[in-house]
Amino acid sequence: MSETRELAFDPDQLREKYRIERDKRLRKDGNEQYVEVAGEFSNYIDDPYVSTPIDRPALTDEVEVIVVGGGFGGLITGARLREAGIENLRIIEKGGDFGGTWYWNRYPGAACDTESYIYLPLLEEVGYIPQAKYAKAPEILAHSQNIARHFDLYRDVCFQTEVTEMQWDEQALRWIVRTNRDDAMRAKFVVMSNGPLNRPKLPGIKGITRFTGHTFHTSRWDYDYTGGSPEGDLHKLADKRVGIIGTGATAVQCIPHLGASAQALYVFQRTPSSVDVRDNRPTDPDWAASLKPGWQKERMENFNTLTSGGVIEEDLVQDGWTEIIRNLISMANYRGKGLERKEIERLMELADFQKMEQIRARAQEIVEDPQVAESLKPYYRQFCKRPCFHDEYLPTFNRPNVHLIDTQGKGVEEITETGVIANGEAYPLDCIIFATGFEVGTDYTRRAGYDLIGRDGLRLSDKWANGMRSLFGLQTRGFPNLFILSNGQSAFTTNFPHSMEETATNIRYIIEQCRQGNVSTVEPTQVAEDEWVEEIIRLSRVSESFQAACTPGYYNNEGQPNPTSAQNSAYGKGPNPFFKLMREWREEGTMRGLELG
Ligand code: NDP
Fold it and tell me: Which of 20, 39, 394, 479 gives 454 a disulfide partner, CB atoms 3.0 to 4.6 angstroms apart?
């Protein structure tokens, strides 16, 4: 086949290799393989960053809006509501400060893979330019706190407070928000901004509770034990044998620091990540000075168009994400236009093979031991797992104190009092770090950490037991005056803060309309909600064949087809058409599809 000769790889062979690698990893228990961080494991989510627990009386007062979550979603919503003149606004946050993901994830090397100039929200409003193209966690945390200060969100915040239940009071037309501090606060409107990856998970490895050494999850890094800071220099590990379980995006960032500091580091790998070039660089002050008002929105939209498959001449961000899409498009252009869907899919697969060959060649070039290099090569399509970008990860495996334990998809077999057993061999360890990620496929209310009781005692967990039901992913019938920030049934963007920004604009609009029209309650009509759910399912781009061919992970529900994935998916026409739809809906000015009381 001439195409195969041109390509320098055989697609059939690669497809078969991908299948073999996937099959090694498929397991019947899917999401059930993980242990819920509760009960005897609840210490894994204690807050290690708070020095003085707050002590305050329980609150039973009333505010106009309660926002649950002080991460980017809560901050952006808070900012937009403040701009709309809403003074009586309270944010409830389980951490000790604002920041959400960036409050919790302080592990050494933590940074964001999305360009800082589009990822950090409200840069123009706050008057800040990030220090480099890719921002590190401490800078993002500091920016979060700056947003809160700028928009006066510290004024009425409840930190170290976890919501335990929200109940609609039909007589008073108010939400009662209960917390672990015995609060029973009331609010006319509530916004749920719990975050998409907020609940750490642990592997259900036999013997996990038996280990007598030290353990923690990456999202609660124990610097008292390791020494050092998010910048690295984990000097207290100099005499320690450290094991890390997991090699996802988090592990890729902290392993170089562990490798540089630990006496010995054992990396227990089940599936390798794809690790491409990072090439970070400091912000050019001349470029920063040249920016014109409105630049951030323009840049975010440019990136969003390119990463959602749109064609646009100029690529302002020019990074790994836009390059991936450029490759796919150029492949289709190279072969000609007006192709059948099947043919486009075939060409996309070829472009994907080509990209992953390049990723595998990178491991081959950088890692000196050929066997270790081979173990670090990912054999799956790039979007089966979160693509990673790092320049120090692969070279870390050239250090003599760093040992890759390739479990060939099987994972760690057992944890004992003294260490880990993998591939039948015992590894004595002083410390085990779990880089095993966060819950994704579990129920929304379990991940939120609380249930909602709406009108007539209806529970959100029951209403959504067979899939999400909403209008625009934002509101759900039977739960008046409630707003939800999530990807489900709304927009999915590579740059998540972009869709939060659009959602916050909608929330602001609806609350302003209610204020102006003296509206007491707002929720979707049954018809509008049903139609939206149908539309989401009809347009769903969840490709079952693509997902089934993927190696297991949280992108494909751990390799188990989920009957609700189409219903819970994002708007299938893509983020820009969704944002346009919302803009037009607002411009209509009639609150179409909403029932006002
Ligand atoms: P992930 O869910 O991506 O990774 C979990 C890791 O744990 C996987 O390597 C998984 O292996 C492994 N694992 C699970 N169980 C076992 C077991 N029993 N034995 C051995 N290994 C096991 O979590 P992360 O925290 O790395 O990342 C979560 C998400 O957070 C990312 O996908 C990304 O969206 C975001 N993130 C973004 C960053 C950025 O912008 N740079 C940085 C960090 C995180 P397997 O693959 O085989 O399942």
Answer: 479
